Amino acid sequence: MNRSPAENRLARALASRTKTTSSDWFPVFKARYGMQVAFEAVRDAFGEGSVSTQLLTCCTAVAPILAAGLVPRYEEISADTASIDPMRWVPADPIRALVIQHTYGLVDDESARVLAECAHASGIVVVEDSAHCAGRMARDAQGRPLADVSIHSFGIEKMLPSQFGGAVWVNPESPFADLAADLARRLGSLPVMGGRLDALCRIYVNELRVLSHLPQGPRRALWDALPRWGLFEPAVSASERAGSLSHEPLRPSPAVCDRALAALEGLDELERTHAAAVEVYRSELVGIPQISLMGASATGQPLLRFPLLATDTATADRITEEVCAAGFYTTAWYRPELTPGVTDEGAYRVPAAGDRARLSVTDDVIARVATLPASVGAKDAARIAAVVRDVVTS
């Protein structure tokens, strides 16, 4: 493995934060490409089959499954954890991997433990999606990470303000030792992103600023055209919405690594801010009959966004609109399913309306979810909570 000094620094920082070993960390250009390499290794080791995942997610968390030649199998979720419900998941042949997604940053060790034990007993690889909580992992009672592979994102609208980058942790104690060794070899031998892509990462924020100041018509036209011309690297590309990834898997440039490392140095303070906002939301919104709070088991956690369920879609959308009108940006993550919505449902194997009876909780959560910003701190969280109360009680 011939890593750059910047990659080594980033791997050491991640290892220090997670109490793991730096040699088991592998930086990547984007987390989705690390997922692709992981699923390719799973397919080559165990053959064709499916991956248990969920519809309450971003399409870029499922596109790597398709890119690896596997099939997404959408499982029912828990309305509390926003992740696959261990009481409803039934391992079946030929499921090759299970994704435990920490949606909104909710890490539920107990449900993850049940899922991981069940998966391992059936010879199924556990892939942890920690995109919303970089540097945090589900762990067993002894504090050991549960997953065979853990994916962390430093990308757009995640915990770190670095826009690009990610990392894959390969568990050296995985029961799939040959797979772990092969995956480490693959990740360590990826090519480094080129100069053009590195330049696009450098100018991304400035391009967003320019686009945001244009009238709607030209802005929309350029938003579509610039990626086609190779002049903008979007958070989600048109090809990803259609079911394929935009690039081959790549390692990050030194500049991308250094930005992620600088962001990691401020993560403790970011997490304190997020945790403070979350606790205000819990205390201010608990017991209101018109809403239910998700993540009861995640008390004290620094969530990326705070999720709640309104009585219906219209109320959830009104919460989002009024919070934005009060000056706080938010969206209804994840509505639509496979956010921001896919353009080829066939490629994504999205179940038809008549085939969704086993996904009733998923459909209900997607229909009623509203998410509150957690990067605002305690004082502004109290203001946002007041907006929510006004919406649901008026």
Number of helices: 13
User: What fraction of residues sit in β-strands?
Assistant: 5-15%
Radius of gyration: 20 Å
Low-confidence stretches: none
Shape: globular
Cα distance, first to last residue?
Answer: 61 Å
> Major sheet, described briefly?
7 strands, mixed
> What's the average pLDDT?
96
According to DSSP, the number of beta strands is: 10
Secondary structural class? alpha/beta
Helix content class: 40-55%
Explain what you see.
- This protein has 394 residues and is α/β, with parallel strands linked by helices.
- Helices cover 42% and strands 12% of the residues.
- The chain has helices at 5-18, 31-46, 63-67, 109-121, 177-188, 195-212, 216-228, 238-242, 254-265, 267-285, 313-325, 360-368, 377-393, and strands spanning 25-28, 50-53, 71-74, 95-101, 125-129, 149-153, 166-170, 292-293, 305-309, 369-373.
- The strands form two sheets. The chain has a seven-stranded mixed beta sheet with strand order 1-7-6-5-4-2-3, with helices on both faces.
- Helix 3 (63-67) links the parallel strand 2 and strand 3.
- The protein is globular.
- The N and C termini lie far apart (61 Å).
Keywords:
about 400 residues, alpha/beta, 7-stranded mixed beta sheet, 3-stranded antiparallel beta sheet, about 40% helix
Write the layout of secondary structure elements.
Elements: H1 5-18, E1 25-28, H2 31-46, E2 50-53, H3 63-67, E3 71-74, E4 95-101, H4 109-121, E5 125-129, E6 149-153, E7 166-170, H5 177-188, H6 195-212, H7 216-228, H8 238-242, H9 254-265, H10 267-285, E8 292-293, E9 305-309, H11 313-325, H12 360-368, E10 369-373, H13 377-393
Parallel strand pairs: 2-3, 2-4, 4-5, 5-6
Antiparallel strand pairs: 1-7, 6-7, 8-9, 9-10
Helix pairs in contact: 1-9, 2-5, 10-13, 11-13
